[in-house]
């Protein structure tokens, strides 16, 4: 490539539509390096390489806004990104392989009456939950907490059993119930408020390798900065529930764990 590709040529080369490339240009994700005298977009080597990275990210179901933030970060290094792509794709292949083996064993069990344990029936589905979390929050979590922290959390999740997930679902519901009770009581330092904060700690310990009061406080502060997390608590427990949860946690950290937020 000496003079560059026109938009149709690059679209054919990469297996995407010209509409996609025009949209990437509109949102500032992938802009042509210039235009021909006739007004055609021209893409040169830098844009070709960048498009490859974008398509790697899209294969991992990462949203376009998140991709743009990552590739425009001054600390972005292509080789590091390629290594991460490779690692995540290998994990996806392994996850799909485990789910496929589970499906094959299930078919065999149904057709031939081969016994299959309850644990085997759910093999690979923790990976599906991890993949969904990565799609929804992965890039944001990795930017906030770092790859190592997120990867460790995912590894812990893979080790959870069906019973663990059932307990977690029950715990999640109980946190909301205790939060509503604490709000009705009106005292974040009361018995219901303390119980709510303790249950919230247990909720976090399901995901964390090590509980740290400062991390607990940072997380509840983040809840108020992100409407998705605010809605998670406010919608079922009532308007202002996230603020009240923060007050419960503040009291718990200070008066139970002797940690001043």
How does this model look, in words?
With 261 residues, this protein is mostly helical. Helix content is 72%, strand content 3%. It has 13 helices and 3 strands. The protein has a 3-stranded antiparallel beta sheet. Helix 9 crosses helix 13. The termini are far apart. The mean pLDDT is 82.
How does the SSE layout of this entry go?
Blueprint: E1 5-6, H1 7-14, H2 18-26, E2 34-35, E3 41-43, H3 45-59, H4 64-71, H5 78-112, H6 118-121, H7 125-145, H8 147-158, H9 162-185, H10 191-205, H11 213-223, H12 227-237, H13 241-255
Antiparallel strand pairs: 1-3, 2-3
Helix pairs in contact: 1-2, 7-8, 9-10, 9-13, 10-13, 11-13
What characteristics describe this protein?
single chain, 261 residues, mainly alpha, 3-stranded antiparallel β-sheet, 72% helix, globular
Mean pLDDT: 82
Q: How is the biggest beta sheet arranged?
A: 3 strands, antiparallel
Looking across the biggest beta sheet, what order are the strands in? Answer: 1-3-2
- Level of helix content? over 70%
Radius of gyration: 24 Å
Number of strands: 3
Low-confidence stretches: none
Rough outline? globular
Strand content: under 5%
Decide which structural class fits the backbone: mainly alpha
């Amino acid at each position: 490539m000496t003079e560059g590709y026109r938009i149709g040529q690059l679209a054919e080369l990469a297996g995407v539509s010209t509409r996609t490339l025009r949209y990437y240009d509109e949102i500032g994700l992938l802009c042509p390096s210039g235009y021909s005298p006739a007004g055609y977009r021209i893409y040169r080597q830098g844009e070709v390489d960048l498009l490859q990275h974008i398509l790697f990210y899209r294969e991992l179901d990462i949203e376009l806004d998140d991709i743009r933030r990552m590739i425009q970060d001054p600390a972005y290094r292509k080789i590091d990104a390629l290594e991460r792509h490779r690692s995540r794709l290998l994990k996806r292949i392994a996850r799909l392989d485990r789910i496929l083996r589970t499906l094959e064993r299930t078919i065999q069990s149904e057709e031939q009456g081969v016994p299959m344990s309850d644990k085997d029936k759910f093999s690979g589905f923790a990976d599906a939950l991890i993949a969904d979390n990565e799609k929804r929050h992965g890039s944001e979590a990795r930017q906030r907490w770092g790859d190592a922290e997120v990867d460790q959390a995912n590894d812990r999740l893979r080790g959870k059993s069906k019973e663990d997930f059932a307990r977690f679902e029950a715990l999640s519901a109980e946190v909301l119930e205790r939060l509503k009770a604490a709000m009705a009581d009106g005292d974040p330092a009361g018995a219901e408020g303390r119980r709510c904060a303790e249950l919230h700690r247990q909720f976090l310990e399901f995901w964390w390798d090590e509980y740290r009061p400062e991390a607990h406080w940072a997380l509840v502060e983040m809840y108020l900065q992100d409407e998705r997390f605010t809605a998670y608590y406010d919608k079922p427990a009532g308007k202002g529930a996230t603020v009240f949860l923060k007050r419960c946690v503040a009291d718990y950290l200070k008066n139970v764990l002797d940690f001043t937020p």
